Amino acid sequence: MIIIYYSISISFIIYTNHNIAHGFCCNTQRLRKVDTSFAPSLFSSSIDNNNELQPYDRTATAKNSRYRKRIRNKQSSSWPSYYQPTAQQLAISSSNNKQERNGNEEYQIQKWLLSSTTLILGDDLTFQLINCETNATSIDTPAAEIISNSRQQQLDNFDTKKEYVKHAISTMQSWCQWIIQCSTSRRNSRRRRSINEYQLTYGSIKCSPVNAAKIVDSILYRLLDVIDIEEGEVDTEIVDQEDSTALLELIHIAITAWSNCKNRDGQAVQHTEYWLHLLQERQTSNFTDDNDMRLYEECYRGVIRACIRSHEYQYLEKAIGLLDDMRGEHHQLYPTAQTCNLVLYGLANCKPSTKNAKQAEDILKNMIHDCQENELKYAYKPDTNTFRQVITAWTKSEATDEAAKNARHILDQMLTDYPTLDPDASTFNAIMTLYLQLGWRKEALAIFDQMCSLQQSGRKGTKPDLYSINLMLNALSQQPPFCSSEELQKAEDVLDVIRESFNVAPDVQSYNILIDSWAKSNLPESAEKAVLLLDIMERRCRLEPSIAPDCYTYTSVINAISKSKHHKRRGSWAEEIFQRMKTLYSQGIVNESTVPVYNALLNALITSEEFGSIERAWVVFTEIIETADIANIRTYNTMLKGYSTITRNGGGEIISYSRPRLAEQLLDRMELSYYRETSDIIPDKYSYTTVISAYGRSNVKRKAAKAHWVLQRMVDAYQEGNNSAKPNTYAFNAVLNACAHTRYPEEKVEAFTILCSTLILQKKWAKPDHTTYGIFLQGCSRLLPKNETRKWRVVETVFNSCTKEGQCGSLVLSTLKQQPELYEALVGRFLTDDGLEIPLQWRRNIAGRKDSAASQR
Would you say 688 and 725 are in contact if contact means Cβ atoms under 8 Å apart? Predict the structure, then answer.
């Protein structure tokens, strides 16, 4: 498409300037009304109200095909002398002669732009601007002096000043159009491209849009110097209209060029502001012509666009100030709805907040008020995009009830007061998204029903799109804490009828929503339902590529399988799903497995409790590390979790204990790989805590001391700069658990010493919770003799600290209850006929938490 645009553009540019060379001259007034019959996609769309490229006219292109063919085959020797490439250009482009002979139209455009620019600015200055070797066009540099030094040399290339001016303006417009095309291509691109893909390349020369805008600036400086607009003297041989009108058009081109460039270091905003201020300073009279007023308004809009494209709040405030300035009476100029929509877009997307949303709503109120109260020639009546941006500003601000109510109020206002405006699907989608964030499931479904009702009543713009369908599926499948089987089945039934009802084909996201909902439902049939949906996707994806399963699909299905505890062979089932994904990948249907898929498979294997599942998990782990080389910290932590797992049989008896030695070896491997800079994965607090838990769930000797040693490694790692390894309450609780479950009598004294020292150390790093005190009292009960006096003192001291800190939970009370004498002495006064009623003050800090703490074993 872009090549077609370029082909039309070069035909018009060469045709126009070829006529100039033969004496077909027009005044500056006519330059603003250039005949666009040869290029409907160039000037008619480049500087229009939307400043966007419109779809090209195939009919007009066909009419001009014969002319374009003649230009393409035209020998360079028959061109006017000043279109011939310079010696410097020919030297640079000598390697591209084959490409030129083949009639590459893009190459011809690049060749003409460079040669035309050098005729006006000279070789040296042109290539300096392209290569960013000069600061000639910066605001603080007297660029006019630099450019004027070689003015006469470039004027000698033309017969008259009139011819020079026309050629310069045509070149400015061509560069401006090229910048707009780069900007449009970048916005419409579905993938993220490098900046080099939007450069004009000619041999070894590469010109970015920013450099192209600097060239436009330089040409404008040259024109101001040549036609003496700066002096207020009008050369009647060159222009036969007011100098303010000529200046307006020229500055409009420069502002349009800069407003379509990225605002790097504020360059675009600085340049557009500079030209707008220059226009205001040299404006000799108010603009009365409709076209002049349109250009003047577009100059303001260009500065606002440059501010909005920066996505920085400081420039957003400038844009708001310019909008207020336009509404001022001294300018007698009102912004159009498109200009207001630019500011509203900035408020909705530049650091969205409640403050921005309120400002956006105020702008909407001003637009409605001014349109109702004032009969203005340039009244800015709100359109569909206006309401959409204000609603988006509220929905992106904060997920609060106020934001949801205000967004809905604006939608109702639009539907009631502006019946000719049809809110599009994205407007409804924004409100539905906010409702789902707030958990307003029924309200989101009501919005969807309203879309369908409006469409049936004749407002076709409200037709739900695919994103609306997916939001509706999300609303149907969300019900805290979990969705019921009936609701999920209802959502699944909707998926089968959306083609007929809405003429919309579901995509992979539609299926992923349902699969993920089944995976998180914890229902007995969740795994079977998720796999059934996956089967449908795999069968249909060959005919409908849009529903081909992705990595998220397989991750959700494997997670659903790993949660189905009633399946005894869920590890093997997960491996089967993984092999199906590999088969489809080898056929080129799905993408390669990513680390989340591998991690889900690892988790399914280590939680399956099948014989040999840990060994099979190690094989998968080795494949991730050595073959795929895509492991992350979660991969290592999942494998560590497997080593810290206890396997039980159907009767609850322990078949195999955890494997702390293997877990610690893997931890050593992580640390060494990181410090040797062979891996960027560094152990975090979960890694160390899992190894400590592996010791606590094992039957190895001196497990309390070994668990404490891993805790000390964790503390040392944090003090040496590993911020992700900061010890937390869970790590200390894991050490206390290892001490409390010491099995061998000869180790109990050592274990009790570590138990006390760990609790003391914990208060320096993390605040103890009700689990901490419960495990500590369990340790005292198991490690100290029943009638030892020291046991009474320790238990009483710890219990008083527990109640003082409001952490007296069920684990603390159940542990005390195993020792009747202690229980009676400490809480006996609160026993009643209905049971134990402890003071609320004792358990104040565990409110809202699961007060059924149990041992970590």
Answer: yes
